[in-house]
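Please decode residue identities from the backbone states below.
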């Protein structure tokens, strides 16, 4: 029998999007998988609708919003207890190609050194290739998207798997042994960069990380908190500092911290506040606040879910 795969789908008040994801999972061409929907305390009737429409899906109710890291950690624990040899963590705003799981399992078993794999990403209509992984430029700590915009280099090459540093958390395929070796996601991140931290920890323990050429999926972008929203900016700033503090040491850590502080100074003072003083438009002031508070909260040790003071809770 094929290796058992447990697919985790995290949901928070996105009933219809989650149902579209589950529709795609019904079409998978793989003979040994189980689907668990993890609900982070939704109040839009998600749990009831999913249980009614998809009797073949298991549902785990968290009772509250634990974020990506906390919510999926409970799902991972459930998956391992149910005999998963691979855990496939996907966002609810994805649609998975019918042979995606079989391609991932096959590549994982033929390339034992890889502990974390991703798939080639496309837009929600399946037409435009999107960044499918990231290579970290450690000189600047920048996430460089893997492959050209049109995906031609990726799709034309005959390699089955391409090494990268980071796999995005919307299609995150992990061997059981990785969790047993390094643990789960760090819940302090709550949302954003938890998968970056997990990949760096896994790489530090000798696990390879790669994108599988023939595995494909489709996705939307930032449907949970909104692309470019104040809350997204807050988590991006705070969690980048947390990522640096966990994964770098000595001079390198200090240099990257100073680099991030300079970037924040430019964004807040040289752009947001100067534009506010020049135009009087409070939009610039409102944009500056989550960036400043993300920085402040890191240094004050405030992690987990953001406070309601950010206005988008």
């Amino acid at each position: 029998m094929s290796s058992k795969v447990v697919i985790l789908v995290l949901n928070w008040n996105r009933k219809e999007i989650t149902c579209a994801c589950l529709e795609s999972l019904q079409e998978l061409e793989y003979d040994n998988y189980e689907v668990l929907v993890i609900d982070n305390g939704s109040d839009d009737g998600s749990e009831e609708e999913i249980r009614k429409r998809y009797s073949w899906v298991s549902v785990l109710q968290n009772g509250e919003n634990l974020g990506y890291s906390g919510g999926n950690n409970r799902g991972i624990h459930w998956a391992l207890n149910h005999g998963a040899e691979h855990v496939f963590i996907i966002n609810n705003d994805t649609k998975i190609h019918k042979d995606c799981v079989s391609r991932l399992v096959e590549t994982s078993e033929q390339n034992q050194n890889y502990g974390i794999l991703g798939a080639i990403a496309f837009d929600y209509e399946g037409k435009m290739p999107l960044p499918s992984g990231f290579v970290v430029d450690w000189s600047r700590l920048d996430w460089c998207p893997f492959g050209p915009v049109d995906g031609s280099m990726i799709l034309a090459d005959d390699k089955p798997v391409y090494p990268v540093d980071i796999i995005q958390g919307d299609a995150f395929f992990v061997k059981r042994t990785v969790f047993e070796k390094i643990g789960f996601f760090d819940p302090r991140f709550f949302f954003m960069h938890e998968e970056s931290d997990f990949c760096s920890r896994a790489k530090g323990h000798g696990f390879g990380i790669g994108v599988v050429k023939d595995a494909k999926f489709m996705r939307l972008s930032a449907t949970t908190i909104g692309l470019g929203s104040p809350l997204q900016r807050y988590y991006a700033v705070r969690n980048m500092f947390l990522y640096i503090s966990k994964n770098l040491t000595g001079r390198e850590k200090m240099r990257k911290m100073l680099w991030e502080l300079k970037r924040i100074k430019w964004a807040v003072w040289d752009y947001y506040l100067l534009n506010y003083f020049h135009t009087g438009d409070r939009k610039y002031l409102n944009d500056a606040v989550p960036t400043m508070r993300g920085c402040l909260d890191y240094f004050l040790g405030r992690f987990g879910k953001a406070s309601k003071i950010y206005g988008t809770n």
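Observation: The mean pLDDT is 89.
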